[in-house]
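Input structure tokens:
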């Protein structure tokens, strides 16, 4: 099983130590990442590298700001591959991304 590798200390730095704000941001990320994951699934099914880039870039940026390193690194790999007009990495690692996003429910 993949590890979300959450850097909570970093995330708290981003919210100036405000745990309530961090929880709100995590809630927003759970919603937006579900939409991004759906877009990623569609892009893989369609073989659409440009759509992989968009969805992966969105996941990468928002996860980076919350210290969700496992998601960020995987999304970055998918984005780079998509920029090379390929969906191979996204196809191969789609289930792993799903596992990582599922782990958000345990944070």
């Amino acid at each position: 099983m993949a590890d979300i590798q959450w850097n909570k200390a970093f995330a708290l730095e981003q919210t100036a130590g405000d745990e309530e704000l961090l929880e709100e941001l995590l809630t927003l990320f759970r919603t937006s990442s579900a939409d991004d994951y759906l877009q990623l699934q569609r892009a893989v099914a369609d073989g659409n590298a440009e759509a992989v880039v968009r969805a992966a870039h969105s996941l990468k940026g928002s996860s980076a700001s919350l210290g969700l390193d496992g998601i960020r690194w995987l999304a970055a790999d998918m984005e780079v591959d998509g920029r090379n007009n390929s969906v191979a990495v996204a196809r191969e690692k789609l289930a792993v991304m799903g596992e990582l996003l599922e782990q958000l429910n345990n944070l």
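The radius of gyration is 14 Å. The chain has a mean pLDDT of 96.
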